[in-house]
Amino acid sequence: MVSGEHPQRVLILGGTSEAIALATQAAQHPDLEIITALAGRTQNPQVPGQVRLGGFGGAAGLADYLRGHNICALVDATHPFAAQMSWNAAAAAAITKIPHLILTRSPWQPVKGDRWIEVEDHEAAAAMLPELANRVFLTIGRQELAAYEPLKALWFLMRMIDAPAPDAPIPPGQVVLARGPFTLGNERSLLLTYDIEAIVSKNSGGTATYPKLEAARELGLPVLMIQRPSMPTAQQTGSVSDALHWILECSQQRREFS
Length: 258
Ligand SMILES: NC(=O)c1ccc[n+]([C@@H]2O[C@H](COP(=O)([O-])OP(=O)(O)OC[C@H]3O[C@@H](n4cnc5c(N)ncnc54)[C@H](OP(=O)(O)O)[C@@H]3O)[C@@H](O)[C@H]2O)c1
What we know:
The chain is 31% helix and 23% strand. By secondary structure, the chain is α/β, with parallel strands linked by helices.
């Protein structure tokens, strides 16, 4: 950076390990100022650098923020199931004409031995479960438990990062609080200890939570795999280093045109 120049400001929409990795790497560049935006749902988020907590107030609110904070590039590194935020980001980028990139992991693909049943959403998964199993491992977010609450005859092992609110509707069973990554040994022993007969998972992709699917394969258990919601059309990558490269190019272009 030429002495006297201000760093170029970049907004990362976070909530994923990829967002943390990108913020960490981008922070090494003195000509960049990185802000990570989080919805504020997780307690004690571990994110390097500047963090902005809470929603923006829809696409228009995000557009105001991008303009008001002179953001030169917007990276949507939210979770593949955080569809509302991704649609807002695409709309805000279109309004402001600020360069926009989606950083997202590829979905998991079934391999030989997997017994996946692909379903559209939690309601579809809940409708199928009674015919499939009595004891179920739910590896979904605490805000998605309500769909399974009517299934009083089943028993659920529910793993999540933060506990559900005390008055939140949840199905019968046990809540386990844990944050990945998980190992194959850990997942195998969990499934055996609790006599699990089926798993419900979102197709999040990535390596941190993949071992549950390997354990299910080993044990021949069915997996109800919730499919990803539809996403806006935008420039996209699955690589943190490509995203960093893109940020550096955007900041260079902004510098040249200002
Ligand atoms: N959904 C999942 O399965 C999942 C899993 C792991 C992590 N996460 C992370 O958890 C957060 C919330 O996920 P969600 O599925 O509830 O999102 P969502 O349904 O797509 O978004 C709902 C609203 O939350 C606010 N929001 C979401 N992500 C935000 C962010 N990174 N920074 C600031 N505001 C944000 C926005 O509010 P305004 O309209 O007011 O701006 C958005 O309209 C996301 O950051 C996501 O990356 C989600």
